[in-house]
Amino acid sequence: MGVIVIxxxxxxxxxxxxxxxxxxxxxxxxxxxxxxxxxxxxxxxKRLRDAGIELPFVQGLRHTTEEAMPxxxxxxxxxxxxxxxxxxxxxxxxxxxADGEIVVxxxxxxxxxxxxxxxxVDAVRQAISSGRVPVIAPFGRDAAGxxxxxNADHAASHIARALGAARLVFLTDVPGIxxxxxxxxxxxxxxxEELERLLREGAFGAGMVPKVNAVLHAVxxxxxxxWVVDGRDQEAVRMxxxxxxxxxxxxxxxxxxxxxxxx
Length: 263
Known about the structure:
The protein is an alpha/beta fold. The protein has 8 helices and 16 strands.
């Protein structure tokens, strides 16, 4: 069994604590290593508001300035600490990566909003080989040490790819990816081709576009399963993390089980 990468959405703000801890414990008992990548959007937004900084979102990505970057890093460090402490309270052995040391960032001309150029996997592999769960904050540094804000979904997708993960699970505050959000038409099983078509048709809101692109990146680069589920639903989180083939009726809280073939 390969690594399971779990991306914990910042919008959940502690509401997924029990579900995540339970799923991680189940995986570790089975001898399946787990890596956790977290977001921090709401906490970043609050720190920026308190500092009087307003940043626009472009295609779902926060346009981060040099002035804002220290606030972004502080918020992510705070999120990382809270998640580490939460998992430790549940008896999960953890190690924090909160200083941008895992993701190699690259400048793409959007000030301090960067993209993933690579992943430093040695420290992550060392942590999981010792039985611990790495908890990774989603920002990175370039070769010169400059820090860049990285979309957490994209970071998780690249980390899963670099580790050769068997499964990538996105935990969010909605029950998955909708074919039509207004009609509550939830995708249960889909394909890369269907997601790409829906992207072209503009089916997804701006906030969902980065997540869908992250899903596609993962399944196109060797990750065998990607799930998007409501992180507050303990049973859905368990089913996604364990990769179960169980199915409930359409309209349940089990969100999207997305399978892809490596391109």
